[in-house]
C-alpha cells in the first residue's frame, strides 16, 4: 500500500500593484518546471522567511524583484489556496497574503530582478497566459474601494481611531493649543500619520494605527476594524496637500486610568450626543454616522466582553 504524501505548505506575500492609470503590474514568470505558474503571468512576491511578518516579506520581495518599495500599501486579503493537480509537481497548499500597493514610480525606474518580463495590464485586459485564479482576484479587486485608494498618489496618509467603551462613549483627545498644528485646542481623535511620510520606514495603515495607539495611549486594542477610508481636509487647515485617512473602530475594554496619555493636553470619554462644543467638526459628523451603525453596537459588545 502506498501511503499518501503529506501536503506541503507554504506562506507567501504578493502584490496587487496599481499605477496611476489603474493598470496593474504583472510579472512574466520564469519558465522553470519546478516553480508554480511557470511561464505564465502572475503577481510579484514570494515566500515568507521563518518568523517574518507578511508585510515585511512583501516589502523585501518588492525590493528584491523590482528594486523598489511602495510608500502606500495595505493588506487586501489573506486566502488559502489548495494545491492544484498537474501544477508541474509543485503541490503546495499556499497561504497567500495579498497586498494592494500604489506604483509611485514609472516602469523605467524599476529593475527586474526575477522573471522574464514585467508589464502593466488593465483589469479588463489581462493576458490569456495568466496563473489560474488570478484573473478573478484582479477583477474582484478592481471593484473595491481598496483599488480606488491605491490607484491615486497621496501626499499624506494617516489613521484615526473611533475608540468605544462598554458604555458607548468615545475616547477623545484634547489637542495641544499650539498654532503650528491642525485643530489646536480642540477635542479630536487619537491617531496620526503613517510612517512613509515621516521616515524611510514602511508600514501598512493597520500597523500605523497600532503604533499610534501605543505612542499616544500606551496601549493597543486587542481587535479593530476598518470603518471608512477616504480623502480628508480639515476646515482649519490651509495645507493644500492631498491626505488619505483610514478610520478604524476599536473597543476600549480597559479603564481610563490604565491608559497613559502620550500626546495632547487631556483625554476623556463622551457619549455621542454629549460631545464638547469644541469638538473637531469633521469628527463630530463622523461620530454621528458611526453611532447609527451596526459597527458601533459591535464595538460596545466587544468592549463589554
Give a quick rundown of the structure.
21% of the residues lie in helices and 29% in strands. By secondary structure, it is of the alpha+beta class. The chain has a 4-stranded mixed β-sheet with strand order 4-1-6-5.
What sort of overall outline do the alpha carbons produce when their principal axes are compared?
Answer: elongated
Number of helices: 6
β-strand percent reads 25-35%
The average pLDDT value, as a whole number, equals 91
Strand order of the largest sheet: 4-1-6-5
H/E order of the elements? EEEEHEEEHHEEEEHEEEHH
Structural class: alpha+beta
By oligomeric state, this entry counts as single chain
Radius of gyration, whole Å: 22 Å
State the helical fraction.
10-25%
Count of individual beta strands:
14
Tell me the distance between the termini: 52 Å
User: What can be said about the biggest beta sheet?
Assistant: 4 strands, mixed
Q: Could you list the spans in which at least 5 consecutive residues all have pLDDT below 50?
A: 1-6
